[in-house]
Amino acid sequence: LLGAATPAGADITPLPLVDAGAAWLFPSEIAALAATPGVAAIVPDNPVFGLDLGVVAGPGAASLDPARLAIGLGALADPGDGGPAGRGVTVAVLDSGVTVAPDLGADRLVAWKDFVNHRLQPYDDAGHGTFVAGLIAGDGSASLPLARGGRATVQFRGVAPAAGIAAVKVLDETGTGRMSTLVAALHWVITHRDQYGIRVVNLSVGANPVSPEAYDPVARAVDAAWQRGLVVVCAAGNEGEHGPGGILSPGTSPLAVTVGASDTRQTATTTDDAVTYYSSRGPTLFDEFAKPDLVAPGNRVVSLRVPGSFIDTAFPETALPPAAYLADPGEGDQSAYVMLSGTSTAAPLVAGAAALLLERDPGLTPDDVKARLMASADPLPGATRLEQGAGLLDVPGALASEARADGPALSEDLGDGLTILTADDYRAWEELYWERYGWTKFKWTKFKWTKFKWTGVAWTKFKWTKFKWTKFKWTGVAWTKFKWTKFKWTDYEWAKFKWTVLVQGQ
Q1: What total of structural domains would you count in the chain?
Q2: Which residue in 128, 273, 303, 376 is the catalytic one?
Q3: Are residues 386 and 460 in the same domain?
């Protein structure tokens, strides 16, 4: 259908998993395609980003790992002594790639696929995917504690240190990708799930949603993976400071386990834990699903470093000094870890917990896993349902749970119910600021305007009368830097944009 409706020679990427295809098209071609019988929707192939925030690693010595303690790993038997470790379970990490690291040997990378540069050997030029994989399955070799013959005062080990990792590269060296690439990668994971024993998928990536879930190709791909037996864990997004509706795609899928970020405040107890200010709040923008589903530590979390990667070179202050975790650091010691924040760091902790549940009971369905994770979560005082979901991840509680899902474990649909929620739940909808999209954090010099998809934004869904234009900071917009003369206002043929076209009735 897409091939017949697009100009001859158009570069079309088939996306059969969601009955769609992606192509670069001019706005005039979009109009013609929209009139073609059988086209259900045309949505932009939006940029996808890794969801982390660089933080300065503290110079002091570390005597504990609060993120792992907060979710109860300290109460479990040590994996080296037969405790839960995710044995026999593979977690697919769709991210910037994964490279061999001290805590993640080559034997742990059971599968590799590169959708960006199509290389045959694993690598991670951004450093984000390896960080995520370490939180799931790092074995802590680089921080072996003194009690076990090592040199470290604290061990930074993943939740499921015996799980396998299927590394799928969907983000480039700056941690940026596209929704169509993510859909293709999910299709690859589904196709190879039995070959590599994949039971869990981690998506510490997100894109601004521009359509309801039914027409969001990535959310639909997540639904397809779930229905084929894969537990899909998604980061909620880092848009919390800008109010409700900030859940990013594909965390908008009602089936996915969508994870927000909590702050341990770097203490051993959870009594002072709270939802971070940046963790995205629900409900979802278009469908009003109650999200996130739960939270996990996402502030100042330690995991694997990739020397020379984008994170390592652009944010050198994130590297954890060897003196922070080694009892006797020497001049030749190089840091094996970095400290980052964001919902990107929270999601893999939940993905690791899912691997532990499936190790214990391989017969669990994705719906059962979601039910146990949520039923056992510990509510944080002072946080609303749309901030924390069911509460803070409790790994021992989830392993002890016998909850079973009675049908699909769908996040609740709040319908048209924004008005039924009190002012205490979240900031009023009409106070949603434009800056929630984090424009100040974009690296404009690297942004490719010719690839941006303006017409894909569902403008008809926005209630313009409720926007408080007086609150918009117009003076901060660098209008003089825009090259207006290059825009073709007469026909809007600004550039060729990439669109995803979904087939009617599928």
Answers
A1: 2
A2: 128
A3: no
Q: What is the pLDDT of residue 412?
A: 84
How many other C-beta atoms are found inside a 10 Å radius of the C-beta of residue 145? 16
| Catalytic site includes residue 124 | no
Same domain, 366 and 497: no
Catalytic, 180? Answer no
Q: Tell whether 53 and 87 lie within a shared domain.
A: yes
Residue 245 to residue 288: CA distance in whole angstroms? 8
**Token digits for 149?**
């013959």
Query: Are 160 and 203 in the same domain?
Result: yes
Q: How many CB atoms lie within 10 A of CB 37?
A: 7
Same domain assignment for residues 314 and 456: no
Q: Which of 123, 214, 212, 112 is nearest to 166 (CA)?
A: 112
In a domain, 486, yes or no: no
Tell me the helices (H) and strands (E) count for the chain, helix number first.
12, 18
Active-site residue identified among 344, 367, 394, 411: 344
Judge whether 484 lies within some domain. no
Q: What is the residue range of 100's domain? A: 49-400
Across the beta sheet with 205-206, the strand order is 176-178, 47-50, 205-206
pLDDT less than 70: residues of the chain: 1-10, 54-64, 415-506
344 counts as catalytic: yes
Domain final residue, candidates 345, 380, 400: 400
The active-site residue, picked from 45, 52, 65, 95, is: 95
Cα(90)–Cα(202) distance, rounded to whole angstroms?
A: 11
Beta strands (DSSP E) in 98-219 are 109-114, 164-169, 176-178, 198-203, 205-206
pLDDT of residue 155: 92
